[in-house]
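S1.2 Input.
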Amino acid sequence: MLRVILTAIVAVGALLVYTVKAEASPYVQYGIQDDAWLLGGPGTFDERLAQVKALGVDVVRINIRWDTVAAKKPTKKTNHLDPAYDWAAPDALLLGLRRHGIAPVVTLVGTPRWANGGRAPNWAPKSGSALANFAYATSKRYPWVRKWLIWNEPNKYWQLRPTSARTYTKVLLNPAYVSLKRANRRNQVGGGVTAPRGGRGSVSPVDWIRGMRASRARFDAYAHHPYPMSRRETPTRGGCRYCENITMADLERLLSHVKRSWGTRKRIWLTEYGYQTNPPDRSLGVSPALQARYLAEASLRAYRAPRVDMLIRFLVRDEAHVGRWQSGLFTINDKPKLAAFAFPLPLAQVSRRGRVATLWGQVRPGDGRQSYRVRYRRGGRWLWLGGMRRTSRRGYWSLRTTLPRRTAVQVWSRGNLSAAISLR
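S1.3 Output.
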């Protein structure tokens, strides 16, 4: 799985290399979301879960659709054993993740017709107790699940009607929060779950935060999807400092708005993020090399940011229609993109002072301190940058080295190679 056999080991010349202590966040976790691929991708379900495990994920986000599980109105809504409930899909996903030792992040979304007057699933229920009852039943069915999200991008009009922070807070978030805490006091609840911009008929994330604050929202972490606004935007540059969009490039603004509204005790979960590739998306995609680079740079950005506990990328595999999401680690034909090598072994340049570059990375597969090596390309050959090194207990590493600009660099660990980056 993403295995590369190294055929030569060449001694390093006179290079200055010394390790830098990595001040890792004690909280941030990295994960993926791709329900459709997990349930219906190639191979067996357990083979797909083993592939996810090999990527070194900390968490996997999945959706539990209330309108599907409870298409028929249950008699005892808080009892997960009520015969009206159909738990087949979430049972398969959550029991499989548990079997493979992967922690889930569960999103509750979609209103059944009996709860909203016969409308579409994006319409809020008429009663605040409706989702709360379902949340309680779901938590009791899956008592090992600790992280929950209430709805998905409710600031977009096609995801929640009415598209109102007050409706979201009073009818969905707050009742579900109370219910999940009653089911298990160790449950953590993410609120907001906002898209990066508003637009016609929708609400900007900045206004959504203000509206949630005014409505006295209750949650443990503010969840957000910091997708870029264009393919020219990087995880650190190109955002709009004074507008009301919030992307990864504007992460400090998200931290500031959440802190201003609720103080420093509220955590940040970045629960959906990614770059599409060209090919196949010629209008919105970046090159596979840039997708891999931005994956690692976003990981570094989340690692260094205060209060950020989670970064989840979307998807594992591209969707079949080119007009949909092409942000996978693999193509629709299951061929690995460079991002498939960057996810388990992210590698990013932190800074440069003259000839000295500081590198950062993580070895995600495995537990505890991991062995790794760094190599660079010179004169058509790959040369090792010193000997074998060891990561921190959470798999992080950092080092400074004297290498010229535009030098290609890779990291090796456990028989795998990362995507190469060109030093700036």
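S1.4 Remarks. The radius of gyration is 22 Å.
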